[in-house]
Amino acid sequence: MLILGGTREARELAHIATGERGFEIVSSLAGRVRAPLLPEGAVRIGGFGGAEGLRDWVAANGIEAVIDATHPFAVAISANAAVALHDSGVPLVHLRRPSWSAQAGDRWVRVPDLAAAARVVSTLGERVFLTIGRQGVNAFAEPAGQWFLIRAIDPPEGPLPPNCEMLLARGPFAVADESRLLAEYRIDVLVTKDSGGDQTDAKLTAARAAGIPVVVIERPPLPEGAVTVETVAQVWDWLRVARGGIRSR
Ligand code: NAP
Fold first, then answer.
1. Spatial CA neighbour of 39 closest among 19, 63, 61
2. pLDDT on residue 41
3. Contacts of 203 (CB under 8 A, 6+ apart)
4. In the prediction, which pLDDT does 20 show?
5. Does ligand 1 come within 6 angstroms of the Cβ of 70?
6. Which atom of ligand 1 is found nearest the CA of 5?
7. How far from each other are the two terminal CA atoms of the chain, in whole angstroms?
8. Atom number in ligand 1 closest to CA 70
9. Nearest 5°: CA angle at 33, between 12 and 159?
10. Under a CB-based contact definition with an 8 Å cutoff, are residues 214 and 106 in contact?
11. Which end of the chain has less neighbouring CB within 10 Å, N or C?
């Protein structure tokens, strides 16, 4: 199996696949993060060279199933996988953790993309906590008078907002720490992708408690006709059906 990774679910899959399930797997990482959390088992790092490169790699390495366990906002690799494996005879499933949903007391403003987030944030607050990772920060670089606290694992490249401070950190984060951060930096609006999952949702709880608005960037759509599951456990069910049971060692 090839696991397209870069997420906690991908690491969990690799752990179970190499352990109790006894599959031969290769996990693939893009190589964006300088010191990535490595999954168990074989790992390759770096792009494949588009859909064609991925198709060739899958064929050359005798891959029998592909699990796209990439982040919900990693659009290109998911699209490449769909194109590469179409009509290839190698089954593909997209593992997507469920979206976050608003709870009572939340003040969420849902927007379709980064550009819309940058537009709307200027109407919502003066001191912005930007938690969208290092990619996409450039969308907020145009001076609009606000101050930004930018949190990412590695520093973003390209233009940054003129008034900002970087906070390099990797989740998971605790609610108490997120609340402390909001208070310490006098944050009055939070920006996030709808990443889903419990690794980075503490900021949403903290924002709810503090009564501050949250700009939630909606997920891009998956490729048309994509087969999806929401949990690691469902991947095994899919595998059984997809291949009549991929053989394990
Ligand atoms: P992307 O825009 O979908 O992909 C851009 C290019 O990076 C792809 O065309 C592919 O290059 C390469 N690539 C991406 N994921 C890869 C993987 N797992 N293995 C090998 N090559 C990969 O991806 P992205 O948004 O930059 O995300 C990159 C990685 O970071 C993903 O693995 C994702 O799971 C993880 N991540 C992303 C986010 C996010 O917010 N986007 C957040 C957390 C983690 P080629 O065309 O050359 O094959």
1. 19
2. 95
3. 129, 131, 173, 178, 190, 192
4. 76
5. yes
6. 18
7. 12
8. 34
9. 140
10. yes
11. C
- CATH class label, 108-217: alpha beta
d(CA 27, CA 145): 43
Q: Assign domain 2-96+221-247 one CATH number from 3.40.640.10, 3.10.580.10, 3.90.550.10, 3.40.50.720.
A: 3.40.50.720
Residue spans of the chain under pLDDT 70: 244-249
Looking at the chain, which residues constitute the CATH 3.40.50.720 domain(s)? 2-96+221-247
Whether ligand 1 lies within 6 angstroms of the CB of 133 is answered as: yes
What local confidence, expressed as pLDDT, does residue 247 receive? 59
For the Cβ of 199 lying below 6 angstroms from any atom of ligand 1, the answer is no
Tell me, what's the pLDDT at 19?
Answer: 85
What does the pLDDT read at residue 240?
A: 87
Cβ atoms of 86 and 227 within 8 Å: the answer is no
Q: What is the pLDDT of residue 185?
A: 98
CB of 4 shorter than 6 A to ligand 1: yes
